[in-house]
């Protein structure tokens, strides 16, 4: 288990079978590209695991998602809103890093002001992500 917790599942590079005490069943945790292989237990991809971890579901919510996923042979996905907010976060982080590099290089005096503006926007976006990922909001679904 240490290998799994030490490295993100998506970079593990192989499928790992685990037993979930919460779900009382065996599961396969697999890299996204290995999802189409045949397994002897329900499969959760790295993307699905990341989505569930971001949502922090209660054990009851996790059992409900698992039941729907297995009954409908679906997958755990985020909402379009969550994906859009995450893209905005990634864009802001890239802009912040670029402005920080300019400030460190001493090239622009306005880079400090730009950093503060981006930081405020990033704070707002991170708050939105936290709201979308809060348990019980119903945004996570099995399709």
What would you note in describing this structure?
With about 140 residues, the protein is an alpha+beta fold. It has 2 domains: about 1-75, no CATH class; about 80-135. It is built from 6 helices and 5 strands; from the N terminus they run H-H-E-E-E-H-H-E-H-H-E. The protein has helices at about 1-5, 10, 45-55, 60-70, 80-105, 110-135; strands at about 15-20, 25-30, 45, 75, 140. The protein has a 3-stranded mixed β-sheet. Strands 4-5 form a two-stranded antiparallel sheet. A hairpin with a 4-residue loop joins strand 1 and strand 2 (about 25-30). The radius of gyration is 19 Å and the shape is elongated. Residues about 1-5 and about 135-143 have low confidence and may be disordered.
